[in-house]
């Protein structure tokens, strides 16, 4: 199963909106065929492994697959049918498919055909492989994830704004790996004006990859004759989408579109785009996940609106010990631990001297009227 996970990771970020799946066929302790999910519309991992497995199976041949085989007919046909037709009599599966039309049904189809099915092998690792897909198919919503790099005392920058670099090279390389996974990345206008980022995934030994790049700019202050950000002028500018409001100047909207940059104009009572409206537009565009690398203002808005689904937090062994250093999040009034945000399904990984903690964001219950009155005195 670990080999199947490694095969699945070879297609990291290339299968949206489908999950990444790895399949390995083993005979007498040897791997004889393997496959990983093709890009959307192409064959699934099981079919590719079976296509590479060109002879009748020997007794005891086993198919290892990281996700429950599909049992419904799509563009490529049901994988359960291909497995049954192959003659393989033993299938070992990692995670159950969370898609309601498939969930557990594939196991039943295989067992009804006389195939031995073993489930739940490295289940947590196999499910973690498809964070974005799992959220999309169970909630019909994009996974909104955010990344932050902080000191041990929770600061993202010195009081002067200096923040490069809090974390080391290995942690920053891991950020590019996650950029490659998500179909879109998002930052605020302040980050564009301060850092002028490229917002591409640059991984050693691979071509530069550009996801969709969202710039949240309710006032269109990034549009200027004196300064043209990389994301508005580089070879990937057609993959840049500026998210603004109906309160922004239409002349600036036309200018961006003339430059080849896309613009989403969202309804808003203020000059801020609400995350709920942005999420709705992502659903319309069938965009399954967004990786937010904005500053404290954008991330705080995400949390205040209870729209952050997942957090990647890189902590460096650095202490600023300055109350005026920039905090990661602000804007909540957390008067007791019962009302604190928490992470679930937590994973911790070490990159050089830095530690990544990541997990699903759990929000406390909203205060009732009586609790609000009491808490405010």
Largest sheet: 9 strands, mixed
Low-confidence stretches: 368-377
Extended strand count = 16
> SSE order, as H and E?
HEEHEHEHEHHEEHEHEHEHEHEHEEEEH
Question: Whole-Å distance between the termini?
Answer: 56 Å
Q: Mind telling me the C-alpha Rg?
A: 23 Å
The strand order across the widest sheet is 11-10-9-8-12-6-13-16-15
Gross morphology: globular
SS-based class? alpha/beta
Helix count, DSSP H or I runs of 4 or more residues: 13
**Helical content (DSSP H or I, runs of 4+):** 25-40%
Mean pLDDT: 90
Beta-strand percent range: 15-25%
Question: How would you describe what is shown here?
Answer:
- The chain has 13 helices and 16 strands.
- By secondary structure, the protein is an alpha/beta fold.
- The chain has a nine-stranded mixed sheet with strand order 11-10-9-8-12-6-13-16-15, sandwiched between helices. Strands 2-1-3-4-5 form a five-stranded mixed sheet. A two-stranded antiparallel ribbon has the order 7-14.
- It is globular, with a radius of gyration of 23 Å.
- The chain starts with a helix and ends with a helix.
- Residues 368-377 have low confidence and may be disordered.
Task: From the structure above, extract its key features.
alpha/beta; disordered C terminus; five-stranded mixed beta sheet; globular; 377 residues; nine-stranded mixed beta sheet
Task: Give the gist of this structure.
The chain is of the alpha/beta class and 377 residues long. It is built from 13 helices and 16 strands. It has helices spanning 2-9, 45-52, 79-86, 105-112, 123-128, 131-139, 169-181, 189-195, 230-233, 250-258, 275-284, 296-304, 369-375; strands at residues 22-27, 30-36, 62-67, 90-95, 116-118, 143-150, 155-157, 184-188, 212-216, 240-245, 262-266, 289-292, 310-315, 326-327, 342-351, 354-362.
């Amino acid at each position: 199963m670990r080999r199947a996970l490694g095969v699945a990771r070879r297609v990291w970020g290339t299968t949206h909106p489908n999950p990444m799946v790895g399949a390995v066929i083993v005979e007498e302790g040897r791997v004889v065929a393997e496959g990983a999910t093709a890009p959307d519309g192409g064959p699934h991992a099981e079919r590719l492994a079976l296509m590479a497995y060109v002879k009748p199976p020997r007794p005891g041949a086993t198919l290892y697959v990281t996700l429950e085989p599909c049992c419904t007919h799509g563009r490529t046909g049901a994988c359960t049918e291909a497995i049954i037709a192959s003659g393989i009599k033993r299938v070992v599966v990692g995670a159950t498919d969370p898609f309601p039309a498939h969930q557990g049904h594939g196991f039943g189809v295989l067992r009804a055909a006389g195939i031995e099915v073993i489930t739940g092998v490295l289940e947590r690792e196999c499910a973690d492989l498809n964070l974005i897909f799992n959220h999309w198919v169970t909630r019909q919503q994009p996974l909104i994830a955010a990344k932050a790099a902080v000191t041990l005392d929770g600061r993202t920058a010195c009081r002067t704004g200096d923040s490069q670099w809090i974390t080391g090279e290995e942690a920053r390389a891991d950020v590019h790996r996650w950029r490659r996974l998500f179909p879109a990345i998002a930052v605020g206008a302040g980050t564009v004006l301060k850092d002028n980022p490229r917002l591409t995934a640059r991984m050693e030994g691979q071509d530069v990859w550009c996801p969709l790049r969202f710039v949240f700019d309710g006032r269109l202050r990034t549009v200027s004759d004196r300064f043209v950000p990389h994301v508005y002028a580089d070879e990937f500018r057609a993959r840049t989408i500026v998210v603004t409001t109906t309160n922004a100047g239409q002349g600036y909207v036309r200018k961006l579109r003339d430059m080849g940059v896309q613009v989403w104009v969202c309804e808003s009572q203020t000059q801020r785009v609400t995350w709920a409206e942005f999420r709705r537009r992502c659903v319309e565009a069938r965009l399954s996940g967004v990786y937010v690398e904005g500053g404290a203002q954008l991330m705080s808005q995400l949390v205040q609106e209870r729209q952050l689904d997942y957090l990647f937090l890189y902590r460096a062994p650095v202490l600023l010990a300055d109350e005026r250093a920039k905090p990661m999040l602000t804007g909540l009034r957390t008067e007791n631990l019962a009302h604190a945000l928490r992470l679930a399904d937590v994973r911790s990984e070490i990159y050089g001297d830095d530690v990544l903690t990541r997990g699903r964001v759990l929000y406390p219950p909203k205060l009732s009227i009586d609790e609000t009155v009491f808490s405010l005195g």
